[in-house]
TrEMBL record:
Residues in VOC domain copies: 4-115
Enzyme Commission code: 2.5.1.18
Annotated transmembrane regions: none
Protein name per the record: Fosfomycin resistance glutathione transferase
Highest classification ranks of the organism: Bacteria, Pseudomonadati, Pseudomonadota, Gammaproteobacteria, Pseudomonadales
Gene coding for it: fos
SUPFAM superfamilies cross-referenced by the UniProt entry: Glyoxalase/Bleomycin resistance protein/Dihydroxybiphenyl dioxygenase
Ion transport as UniProt keyword: no
GO molecular function, one term: glutathione transferase activity
Keywords from the named record: Transferase
Keyword field contains Transferase: yes
InterPro entries: Glyas_Bleomycin-R_OHBP_Dase (IPR029068), Glyas_Fos-R_dOase_dom (IPR004360), GlyoxalaseI/FosfomycinResist (IPR050383), VOC_core (IPR037523)
């Protein structure tokens, strides 16, 4: 049985640049580095950066992205820090809770989000998506 998400591995084209982005700008904890990779962490998240010269740095056209949690009190300062660093935004927020959608140096789509699944479901109960069904009564 699955018990949770184990880790994320992101292909990167410049390991030092990506380590600096995730460590210095996003403030993940650097755990280890080697010639072709790095491990970073947040509570409950293990992130692997893997050097891959075949990685295309253009963001994918689809909506696939990785969302990080941020507290509501920290959100404005976090967004300002990213904007000051000229981090590229890829989408405006269209959902409940404050969100900032941005790209890492290799075009991976990321999001900083205030809220969790419970707050999202509560908002959806008020304004459900087209065809939405809830399964908590089973």
């Amino acid at each position: 049985m699955l018990t949770g998400l184990n880790h994320l591995t992101l292909a990167v084209t410049d390991l030092n640049r990506s380590v600096a982005f995730y460590r210095d700008l996003l403030q993940l904890q650097l755990e280890a580095t080697w010639d072709a990779g790095a491990y970073l962490s947040l509570p409950g998240l293990w992130l692997c950066l893997s050097l891959d010269p075949l990685r295309k740095s253009a963001p994918a056209a689809d909506y696939t992205h990785y969302a990080f949690s941020v507290g509501s009190a920290d959100f404005p300062l976090f967004v300002e820090r990213l904007r000051t660093a000229n981090v590229r935004e890829w989408r405006d927020n269209r959902s409940e809770g404050a969100s900032f959608y941005f790209l890492d140096p290799d075009g991976h789509k990321l999001e900083a989000h205030v809220g969790d699944l419970a707050s999202r479901l509560a908002a959806c109960r008020q304004r459900p998506y087209a065809g939405m069904k809830f399964f908590d009564d089973q």
